Here is the input.
Amino acid sequence: MNCWLKLIKPGDALLALTVGIACGLAFPTLWQGGLGERVVIRQGGRLLTELNLQTRHTLQVEGPLGITVIVVEPGRARVLSDPGPRQYCVLQGWLYRPGEIAICAPNQVSLAITGRARTYDSLSY
Amino acid sequence: MTHSVIEIRISEEDRRIARLAAAAVGLSLVDAAIPTPLPGVKPGLANIITLYVLACHGWQTAAWVSGLRVVVGALLLGHFLAPAFFLSLAGAVVSLAVLALAIHLPKTWFGPVSWSILAALSHIGGQLFLARLWLIPHNGIFLLAPILAATALFFGTMNGLITARLLYEREP
Here is the structure.
């Protein structure tokens, strides 16, 4: 181990550290697309309400099956309960980042986080 | 049997380039056999040879060895003139350009590990830019940059250490 360490010169270690820090910083800036700022709630395809992701709200949205309960907290939002049979949108838990969306299809309710800039729906290669 | 009128003079330099290029091709075949989670993530073992040649025989020989490795490696792997060949070529050209500058870094501070990290980063940088310009004309490809840079840092350090060790054992 010691004989490997002495092959590293001071500049090498400094360079590796700099590149490592740059990589670490690149992950959040490139991957987050900024922070989630607003939450958009739709029912039956039309915009129901658009809230700031800074204050607490509890919303009850009425759909064809019953009431979907949505909770908004500073920096995050989730579907708390839904009358749908499979509960996918509830199981998704908290949403934080722009572009994340929970869709309760049976009750026709969707909850989406948006950021400052509009990001892509999807990317394919 | 007729004697050929063409006589190719083979210098000691040619033999050396051929020998080292063969080693590099062998390592790039090993590289290709290692399964990777993401295209572009590769150990780049053949760069050990390039760096070693750079340190012992200079940039020009390193460029020959690297160029031969790209072409012969592509022929053996069956992607000569396919997109993978041009990506490999772009990576080699950019990293050789960066290495030409990197060897002038002060020797007391920077060794083969620095060269290797810089070469690995510029290799992946050249490939990303060619891929962006030609294969995937969408900026979404740059989302891969942090992962690719992090793996370049890791494998660059490993290859640099191996090169430094080889050079150290050659003349302690």
The helical segments of chain A are 2-5, 10-32, 88-91. The domain at 38-114 of chain A is CATH 2.60.320.10 (mini-chromosome maintenance (MCM) complex, domain 2). Chain A has two domains: 2-32, 38-114. The interface with chain B takes residues 4, 7-12, 15-16, 19-20, 22-23, 26-27, 30-31, 120, 123, 125 of chain A (CB under 8 Å).
